[in-house]
Amino acid sequence: MLEGEIVVRGDEHRVERPFPQLTIAVAPPRVADRSRMIVEKLAELGVDGLVWLMTDRGEGRPPRRDRYDAWARAALEQSKGAWLLDVRVGAGPEGPWPDEARVVVCDPGGESALDSLAGDQPILGLVGPEGGFAPTELPTDARLVSLGDRVLRVETAAIALGAIVRAQRRP
Predict the structure, then answer these.
(1) Average pLDDT of span 71-99
(2) Could you tell me the pTM of the whole model?
């Protein structure tokens, strides 16, 4: 709230980071507006990290750093969140990823996301390009997780995964 030339933010308090920690690695979509949607919605949901994946079948390119940083900051402010989405450009879906993370791949043929994403272990969710991952790209320890019986667009799958995990999070 503005009072004259002073910004009054209200009382501040310590906010613990919710768990489980969630990082979503996404093959960038071809259209820049769809990349923006991914950043904004994952930031609003309180997802911890977003990694832009470079895949064999991916046709999109990650947005420029200044753009995705601005989108993440604006979404954090709008949602009144406490933790800024950490956005990075990564390697391929095969990693390397942290050993302690439970690696899941969004796939309509996988097990139910509601059953397999419960728990406190950090989660790394992989969302492939529109053509899917090449067979050699997936980590050997990855579990296939279904977000429903439909094939979703990249941005829809990333947002759905974030919403499912976020709904189960505890402070």
Answers:
(1) 87
(2) 0.87
Q: Are 42 and 165 in contact (CB under 8 A)?
A: no
Q: Which residue has the tokens 């960038």?
A: 28
Domain 44-148 has CATH 3.40.50.1820: no
Q: Which residue has the tokens 């799958």?
A: 157
DSSP letter (8 states) at residue 136: G
Q: How many CB atoms lie within 10 A of CB 48?
A: 21
Q: Is there a contact between 146 and 109 (Cβ–Cβ < 8 Å)?
A: yes
The single residue listed with the structure tokens 């308090």 is: 13
3-state secondary structure at position 149: coil
Domain ranges of the chain: 44-148
Point out the least confidently predicted range of 52-56, 130-134, 161-165: 130-134
Structure tokens at 158: 């990333």
